[in-house]
């Protein structure tokens, strides 16, 4: 194991020779971007695979989040989670919106619906939750609150590709859902993203916004951005889609192996498997209780010394970063569960090509650390 590093996430790559015909077709068509044939094919293929009505592809998930907020003309304050990757809140700042942080549920680590109502003010217009680690938010309670107060709901579903909740796609909840297709995600186009839309009218507005606002060659309808996905990335997505079921099966097998070894290890907690959910094993976080003999950071360093690269997702909290920590909602007292999780979490490697004997070795090392 010393010859090669074990990463927390790695892209699942199809055989190179299978990509060559796609490259040849792009070369022959001379269409490199701007809603080309592969782009159109991937939008249709992903809509069918994910079980959603409309899907708009983007160059990356961050631009998709920024555009989703513009699509719904969100203003004022947006209630969101501090326990996420920074782009969740950054997308609000890019739209000159004020993030209002609410604590997470101590079990699911998703936005706690019980804390949302007390954070609503006359300036609140939307809720931006995250399906953390691909586990569903309490979508029913969040929607009830949104309906009572007339708020929009945009889900950051960067981790939730292919997740099924109560027999249908989790991405169908909320006004919009936003996917990331970054190289580290379950399904990737190296760089990419998407907005799940409820209807063609919404998708048409999104199409204007991601293409500089152009409605036709001479008409600009909005102050849009360049968020288009290239033909190269779309072609890679079409090829990746052929292997997605096999990749998910391997991920689930690895997750089951981890759970078999670690579920009873003193000082380590695992997230429960959500009810009514078919997950995607996007991440495998573990949490260190005080009774574990080493700190989380000491375990991180020891793994790194063995060329096993774990990640402290999500540490530090968004709310502790310089551009956010001065906000009243960012105080440690307001976010006890999120701060606790951020200080205890370590995501172990999980990706389709991770061999089970390497999983066993990671678990053996944790056993050694626990006997320290």
TrEMBL record:
The record's keywords, sorted A to Z, are: Aminotransferase, Pyridoxal phosphate, Transferase
| Family matches, as InterPro entries | DegT/StrS_aminotransferase, PyrdxlP-dep_Trfase, PyrdxlP-dep_Trfase_major
Pfam families (UniProt xref): DegT_DnrJ_EryC1 (PF01041)
> The organism sits in which domain of life?
Bacteria
SUPFAM superfamilies named among the record's database cross-references: PLP-dependent transferases
Q: What is an example of a GO molecular function annotated in this UniProt entry?
A: transaminase activity
Annotated family = Belongs to the DegT/DnrJ/EryC1 family.
This chain's protein is named Aminotransferase
Source species of the chain: Limnobacter litoralis
């Amino acid at each position: 194991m010393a010859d090669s590093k074990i990463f927390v996430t790695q892209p699942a790559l199809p055989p190179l020779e299978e990509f060559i015909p796609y490259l040849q077709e792009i070369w022959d068509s001379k269409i490199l971007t701007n809603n080309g044939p592969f782009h159109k094919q991937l939008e249709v293929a992903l809509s069918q695979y994910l079980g959603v009505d409309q899907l708009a592809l983007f160059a990356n998930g961050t631009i998709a989040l920024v555009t989703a907020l513009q699509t719904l003309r969100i203003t004022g304050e947006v209630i969101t989670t501090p326990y996420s990757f920074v782009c969740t809140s950054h997308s609000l700042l890019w739209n000159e919106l004020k993030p209002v942080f609410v604590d997470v549920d101590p079990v699911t680590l998703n936005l706690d619906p019980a804390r949302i109502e007390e954070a609503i003010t006359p300036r609140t217009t939307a809720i931006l939750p995250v399906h953390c680690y691909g586990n569903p938010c309490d979508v029913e309670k969040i929607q009830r609150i949104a309906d009572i107060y007339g708020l929009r709901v945009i889900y950051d579903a960067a981790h939730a590709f292919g997740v099924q909740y109560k027999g249908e796609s989790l991405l169908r909840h909320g006004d919009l859902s936003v996917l990331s297709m970054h190289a580290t995600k379950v399904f990737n186009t190296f760089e990419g993203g998407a907005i799940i839309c409820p209807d063609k009218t919404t998708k048409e507005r999104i199409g204007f916004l991601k293409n500089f606002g152009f409605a036709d060659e001479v008409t600009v309808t909005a102050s849009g951005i360049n968020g288009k996905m290239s033909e190269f990335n779309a072609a890679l997505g079409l090829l990746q889609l052929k292997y997605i079921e096999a990749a998910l099966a391997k991920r689930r097998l690895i997750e089951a192996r981890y759970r078999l070894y670690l579920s009873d290890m003193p000082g380590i907690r695992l997230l429960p498997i959500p009810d009514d959910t078919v997950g995607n094993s996007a991440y495998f976080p573990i949490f260190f209780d005080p009774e574990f003999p080493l700190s989380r950071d000491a375990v991180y360093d020891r793994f790194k010394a063995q060329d096993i690269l774990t990640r402290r997702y999500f540490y530090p909290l968004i709310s502790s970063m310089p551009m956010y920590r001065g906000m009243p909602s960012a105080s440690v007292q307001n976010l006890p569960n999120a701060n606790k999780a951020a200080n205890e979490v370590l995501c172990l490697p999980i990706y389709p090509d991770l061999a089970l004997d390497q999983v066993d070795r990671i678990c053996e090392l944790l056993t050694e650390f626990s006997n320290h």
